[in-house]
Amino acid sequence: GWKYILIFLDEATKMTWTYGLKERSADAVLESLKDMYDNELPAGAVIENFHSDGGKELLSERVRLFMKMKGTRLFTNTPTDTPELNSLSERKFRTMGEMALAMLSRSGLPSVWWGKAYMAAQYITRRMPTRTAQGFMTPLEAIPGGSAPSWEWLRVWGCKAYVLKPKADRRKDWDDKAQVGYFVGYSQDTV
Question: Who has greater pLDDT, 18 or 44?
Answer without folding.
Answer: 18
